[in-house]
Design a protein that fits this description.
The complex is a heterotrimer. Chain A is of the alpha/beta class. Chain A has 2 domains: 33-172 and 310-389, Response regulator (Rossmann fold), CATH 3.40.50.2300; 174-302, Response regulator (Rossmann fold), CATH 3.40.50.2300. Helix content of chain A is 40%, strand content 21%. Helices cover 72% and strands 1% of the residues of chain C. The chains are: A alpha/beta, B alpha/beta, C mainly alpha. At the A-C interface, helix 7, helix 8 and helix 9 of A face helix 3, helix 6, strand 1, helix 11 and helix 12 of C.
Chain lengths: 409, 237, 359
């Protein structure tokens, strides 16, 4: 290396040390300063359609307050992280763990908005739990993350080595979604169902709940099977299912696990019955991937479709459209609400006279969220960190568009 | 000027100095033999001429044109054909396909067909077995095939590496008869042999190699008469 | 004693199968019963498996050709196959042909796409060999292998980037990594019913017919090329003994380049076939598709052309059978269990390796 490059490098090193010292002044007590909030979402891969609108909405929420809280004393720096890798085209366990360790060790980070995939949450929660770092998820729906007795044995305690909860979510969990799905299937006239899942935490969890609820509702469950989300095609499986002639096929899974190909092959072998899926395939990418096979597919999800939003939510939607010149996807509003929960908690921490850099105080404040007047209406977070909001919608894809069909209870 | 000239070549296998400045020449129409003990560098000399190994120093020239700068397949196009040690016939190819490979660098279809007939008349056994996989031939048949395959390239210089190795005496005689026939037809031959007695009988001149260096060079007649050659290579004491 | 030792793994295998098989869907009597009750379903699944296996086999040929000649597992091959599918999709997008176009338009578009994919993948593969493998040919085995893995990642990322160029190629859809819909140019016409008026309990669609016929033609073509042409013979000679080939006047660099060209061209054709058959392409398909194909090549005996075809079709059939009679959750486990079993008893694969008899 030449002398000159040594010089340049040393200048950079010195400058960056000085600058980073400026950027993070050590705040004394409640005097104010800067804290970092990060979001942890898969930004590489086909989830990007969803996650980019979530990041936009979070940015929008913080910017609406000028990135300031506590009467301008504290500045919020928002930094979106990517937990996916190009190699997988979806969330990657390795990246999730690496990110989590980084959040844990960077004391300036006081809250994580994430994750998007329940499997990723499983890995991240315990790491952040040990460091008292609060999480607010805009999208995880696997029940076992928070609800005792709704997931596997030992859940959710295994995620909280510290014995104190640090993880909350602003979306209704799947024990609701799977259950209302099964009920809806019955209302649609199905007598027998075939259940498929993508063998991931989210998908299999949902499918299991759907399976149980279907039986409870008097439907015949012919079988439940898992698919390989990376297989080239599913014609053999589809041939088998078609031979059993179920009235409805339910798929618990996400678009990224080849849902498009699965639905195509099911229609390809001549299956004429109904198809249903969860919010994991409630996105534009699924319609594009499945093409004609997405037609008439029934979908369930928490909340309301973007174009059915009313009141404050509608105002938010219009502001979003004006700012980003595009439509928000379904989860974007939960991103906005996550940021609202964050800022609300920060305000209360300040009022108690503590500094925002006090992770334990922030965590406590998040769990104390009560009657927050969000764009989704008023809701609270319970002791498990779950939202009290349980609005669920049923939609159907018609001519490539998501059409609202019914509210599900 | 001699036809093939090797000037002071140094060849290495990784860090092993295999050839330490070999110089030799072969005149048109001659049979020249290299004799020496195992590991003296005889085969390496042939490999260096044919381009399979490259000399770190020195030069190989054909009619004054450098060969050592060319890749092996271009050297073949110059008419330098090697019949390698241990036959190296293509076991998964048939006998006739092997012979075809020998003529790979040529495009004169008619002449190739004529040469094929020539080889078959030279070695009728090969004709009988032409559709058999070469891997199934006996050692002697494989040597015939390797030699025939070399001839299919219409050699200007034929490099023969241990053609008699591992063969029954009858076959050794056959191979040496063939060498003499080729000699009569005007083919230039550089012959490497362990069987120094036979080699010196057919050759015009010879070189004696020892540890990568030439220690003696003379006419075949004189070499046969040389006492130290007799002792070391001809088994006469 | 010798006998006991020889068959011990077999006995242990059967034992394991009886005990753990049912957990993974292997229930002998149920399966026999199902087949007996509805044999047409088995036939239908064989058709599914044959079509799938045919595509796998064409990709497997690329692995086996390259391994046969330079003993390198070309990990990037699956990703080149993915690029072929992307190229075909791009060309079809550019022609503007869709499901509703006329038959002759569709045929023209498919042929154009095929030609483009075949040439493109062939050339890419030659370039990969030239820059990533050639200089490492005499290096320790691990070096080109690592290089191949690196190239695989690079090519995969090229696919990801390409998939994001929707402003140039609108057909690429929503976002770079999303699965892309490949226009269904063939359609599903039931050959038995609609062409021959036969009312059979099984269906053979034009799609499966296309895949099986094209794959068979490619395999026969390759077989003839390797067996009877001058370059084919030079390939076999080079595979067996590189030095001996050199002194025949064979330019082995050219022969190796040609082998990569051939493998790439097959991958390009397979890419188009995959797109037309499954109607979805995604940038990760090369990795998973490649894995199956590589497995097939090993199963058949790597380096052995017939073995690769056989292995590919066998794996396709096996996967379809497992999906029907075992459980799709366990299909991959079954496929690899069979592979392991074959490797234990025949380490060189079903048809035997074919990398010459190097001394």
């Amino acid at each position: 290396m030449s002398k000159r490059s040594y010089l340049i490098i040393s200048v950079i090193v010195v400058l960056s040390t000085v600058l980073s010292a400026c950027a993070t002044p050590a705040p004394a007590g409640g005097a104010g300063g800067t804290v970092t909030v990060v979001s942890d979402l898969p930004m590489t891969g086909s989830s990007l359609g969803q996650t980019q609108t979530i990041v936009n909405a979070i940015t929008q929420a913080f910017e609406s307050k000028g990135n300031k809280v506590c009467d301008g004393k504290w500045t919020i720096t928002y930094k979106p992280y990517d937990d996916a890798s190009a190699a997988r085209g979806a969330w990657d366990p390795e990246v999730v763990t690496k990110n989590a360790k980084e959040y844990a060790s960077n004391t300036n980070i006081v809250l994580v908005i994430g994750t998007f995939n329940s499997g990723a949450a499983k890995l991240m929660i315990p790491i952040l739990n040990a460091e008292n770092l609060a999480m607010v998820s805009p999208a995880n729906t696997y029940p076992g993350l928070t609800k005792p007795g709704k997931g596997e044995k030992g859940e959710p305690e295994v995620y909280y080595p510290n014995k104190v909860r640090n993880y909350s979510r602003v979306v209704p969990a799947d024990d609701l979604q799977g259950a209302v799905g099964a009920k809806w299937a019955k209302e649609l006239g199905a007598k027998s169902v075939y259940v498929l899942d993508d063998q991931e935490l989210y998908g299999k969890g949902l499918a299991d709940v759907f399976n149980k609820a279907a039986v409870a509702n008097g439907l015949t469950v012919i079988a439940q099977e898992g698919i390989d989300g990376k297989a080239a095609d599913y014609k053999a499986l589809a041939t088998k299912i078609n031979d059993k002639k179920p009235d409805l096929i339910y798929f618990g899974g996400i678009t990224q696990n080849n849902a498009g190909q699965l639905f195509k092959d099911i229609r390809n072998v001549g299956f004429k019955g109904m198809l249903m899926g969860p919010d994991g395939i409630y996105e534009e990418a699924f319609v594009k991937a499945a093409g004609d096979a997405s037609e008439n597919v029934y979908l369930t999800f928490g909340g309301l479709p973007v174009d059915k939003l009313t009141g404050k939510a509608a105002e938010w939607r219009d502001a979003y459209k004006a700012k980003f010149k595009s439509d928000p996807e379904v989860y974007a509003i939960y991103g906005y609400v996550s940021a609202q929960v964050t800022m609300d908690a920060f305000e209360r921490v300040c009022k108690s006279g503590k500094a925002l850099t006090d992770r334990a105080a922030v965590r406590e404040a998040v769990f104390a969220t009560k009657d927050l007047d969000s764009v989704l209406g008023k809701f609270s977070l319970d002791a498990n960190g779950d939202t009290t909001d349980t609005t669920m919608s049923g939609v159907q894809i018609r001519k490539g568009k998501f059409e609202f069909v019914t509210l599900l209870k | 000027m001699s036809m093939l000239e090797v000037q002071n070549i140094h060849t290495y296998y990784d860090n092993i100095h295999a050839l330490k400045g070999i110089s030799l020449n072969v005149n048109e129409g001659e049979i020249v033999t290299l004799i020496g003990a195992n590991g003296a560098g005889k085969s390496t000399t042939l490999k260096t001429i044919s381009g399979l190994t490259k000399p770190r120093e020195g030069a190989v020239r054909l009619h004054g044109n450098p060969l050592h700068t060319l890749p092996a397949h271009k050297i073949v196009e110059q008419g330098i054909i090697m019949v390698p040690e241990g036959r190296r016939v293509f076991g998964v190819l048939t006998v006739s396909e092997n012979l075809e490979m020998g003529a790979f660098a040529r495009n004169d279809k008619q002449a190739i067909a004529q040469d094929l007939e020539k080889v078959y008349s030279l070695f009728p056994r090969l004709k009988e077995r032409r559709n058999q996989l070469a891997g199934t031939l006996s050692g002697g048949e494989q040597q015939m095939l390797a030699t025939g395959r070399g001839l299919m390239g219409r050699p200007r210089v034929l490099l023969l590496d241990e053609p008699s190795m591992g063969l029954a005496p009858v076959l050794v005689d056959l191979i040496f008869d063939t060498i003499q026939q080729l000699h009569k037809q005007g083919t230039t031959i550089l012959l490497v042999e362990q069987n120094a007695r036979m080699a010196l009988q057919v050759a015009d001149r010879g070189y004696v190699l020892q540890s990568g260096e030439i220690v003696l060079s003379d006419s075949a007649e004189n070499l046969r008469a040389n006492e130290s050659v007799q002792k070391a290579y001809l088994g006469i004491s | 004693m010798q006998l006991v030792r020889r068959f011990l793994p077999l006995v242990i295998g059967i034992y394991l199968l009886l005990f753990f098989g049912p957990l993974a869907g292997f229930d002998f009597f149920r399966i026999v019963g199902e087949i007996y009750n509805k044999p047409s379903l088995l036939l239908q699944q064989l058709i599914n498996g044959l079509a799938n296996g045919s595509i796998v086999a064409i990709v497997a040929l690329g692995y086996t050709l390259v391994y046969g000649i330079i003993e390198l597992v070309n990990f990037a091959h699956g990703d080149v196959f993915m690029l072929g599918a992307f190229m075909a999709l791009t060309v079809i997008g550019a022609t503007g042909v869709t499901e509703t176009s006329t038959a002759s338009e569709k045929l023209t578009a498919a042929l154009l796409a095929g030609a483009a994919a075949i040439i493109f993948c062939g050339v890419i593969n030659v370039i990969i060999e030239r820059f990533a493998y050639r200089r490492l040919r005499n290096a320790p085995r691990l070096a080109p292998l690592i290089s191949a893995i690196g190239v695989s990642f690079i090519v995969q990322n090229i696919g990801l980037f390409w998939g994001g160029l929707r402003s140039f190629f609108p057909i690429m859809g929503v976002n770079s990594a999303a699965p892309k819909a490949f226009p269904d140019l063939i359609g599903r016409v039931d050959v038995f019913k609609d062409w021959f008026g036969l009312d059979l309990p099984i269906t053979l669609s034009t799609k499966e017919l296309m895949v099986i016929v094209v794959a068979a033609a490619l395999m026969v073509g390759l077989r003839l090329l390797v067996q009877y042409t001058k370059i084919g013979k030079a390939m076999r000679a080079t595979a067996e003994n590189r030095d001996a080939a050199k002194i025949m006047g064979i330019d082995i660099d050219r022969v190796i380049s040609f082998t990569f060209l051939l493998g790439g061209a097959l991958a390009g054709a397979a890419g188009l076939m995959f797109g037309l058959y499954n109607n979805t392409v995604v940038f990760t398909m090369g990795f998973t598709g490649g894995l199956r194909a590589f497995t097939s090549a090993v199963l058949g005996g790597i380096g052995n052309i017939t073995g690769a075809m056989f292995g590919g079709i066998l794996i396709g059939l096996l996967a379809a059978f497992s999906d029907q009679y075992f459980s799709s959750r366990w299909t991959n486990a079954w496929v690899f269990a069979i592979l392991v079993t074959v490797m234990v008893f025949r380490p060189t694969g079903l048809m035997g390796e074919n990398v010459g008899q190097k001394a």
